Automatic annotation (TrEMBL):
<feature type="transmembrane region" description="Helical">
    <location>
        <begin position="86"/>
        <end position="106"/>
    </location>
</feature>
<feature type="transmembrane region" description="Helical">
    <location>
        <begin position="46"/>
        <end position="66"/>
    </location>
</feature>
<feature type="transmembrane region" description="Helical">
    <location>
        <begin position="232"/>
        <end position="248"/>
    </location>
</feature>
<feature type="transmembrane region" description="Helical">
    <location>
        <begin position="17"/>
        <end position="34"/>
    </location>
</feature>
<keyword id="KW-1133">Transmembrane helix</keyword>
<keyword id="KW-0812">Transmembrane</keyword>
<feature type="transmembrane region" description="Helical">
    <location>
        <begin position="202"/>
        <end position="220"/>
    </location>
</feature>
<keyword id="KW-0472">Membrane</keyword>
<protein>
    <recommendedName>
        <fullName>ZIP Zinc transporter</fullName>
    </recommendedName>
</protein>
<feature type="transmembrane region" description="Helical">
    <location>
        <begin position="149"/>
        <end position="167"/>
    </location>
</feature>
<feature type="transmembrane region" description="Helical">
    <location>
        <begin position="118"/>
        <end position="137"/>
    </location>
</feature>
């Protein structure tokens, strides 16, 4: 879904499909993950279902596409050292980079106010870039057609909602009143850049690989909630419905 090969061969992005959906992704940041809403029991069921859908997205779509990306990179680099492994190394880099950010946030947010403010700004900046890349890749889908765009938007929109709830837990009102709108802007800017530019298949493959690694980390971190907060049947239902729709459509 995020991947690159057919998009590169089919003449680039289709803004007619992607443009309204990047606005939906931005609205997920603007409206989702608010603390007072997420605390409601009924909403916890929906968050768990959304987490299940996002996990299904990782295992049914992202991980298989990493293999396709590895083939693209291998073909482009030919006999270069670790050509086929490069894509997996970039996936690992995305995973480790975002894990490092989360560890730093967890260790520093309980410290003095100045240190916490610096960590908050850095945390927000990293996720603004992340949101921009997600918005960018919406315009560079592997398979054409509305269903592919919708599946991507649903999965990443739900992912944004749950990730924003994590921002609220760490940073409270500072995120609710101001920070979330930087993520909105990042998503829209990424979409605009995606609509207006097209990079080569190799570089696009590597961008996808980095985002794939970060998506895996963020999905597992945010969308597998603590046992006391999770609603397993809702989580299972979200995963099963999303996987079934992807496989059947």
């Amino acid at each position: 879904m995020l991947a690159v090969t057919a998009a590169s061969l089919s003449g680039g992005p289709d803004p007619r499909l992607a443009a309204p959906l990047v606005v939906v992704l931005a609205l997920a940041h603007a409206l989702g993950g608010r603390g007072e809403v997420a605390a409601a029991t009924s909403v916890r069921h929906w968050l768990s279902a959304g987490g299940g859908a996002a996990v299904a997205y990782v295992f049914v779509l992202v991980l298989p596409e990493v293999s396709d990306v590895a083939l693209v990179v291998g073909e482009r680099l030919g006999e270069a050292f670790l050509a086929e492994q490069l894509a997996y190394l970039v996936v690992l880099t995305g995973f480790v980079a975002f894990y490092g950010v989360e560890v730093t946030v967890a260790h520093r947010c309980g410290g003095d106010a100045e240190s916490s403010a610096i960590v908050y700004r850095a945390h927000l900046a990293v996720f603004t870039v992340y949101s921009a890349l997600v918005g960018y890749l919406l315009f560079h889908q592997e398979r054409p057609g509305p269903a592919n765009y919708v599946f991507y938007t649903v999965a990443m929109g739900l992912h944004f909602v749950v990730t924003d709830e994590g921002f609220h837990r760490h940073h409270g009102d500072a995120f609710d009143h101001r920070g979330r709108y930087l993520l909105v802007a990042g998503t829209l800017v990424g979409g605009v850049v995606g609509a207006l530019t097209e990079i080569g298949p190799l570089h696009l493959a590597l961008v996808f690989a980095f985002v794939a690694g970060s998506v895996v980390l963020n999905v597992l971190k945010e969308e597998l909630p603590e046992a006391g907060q999770s609603r397993f049947l809702a989580f299972l239902g979200g995963a099963a419905v999303y996987a079934a729709l992807v496989l059947l459509v």
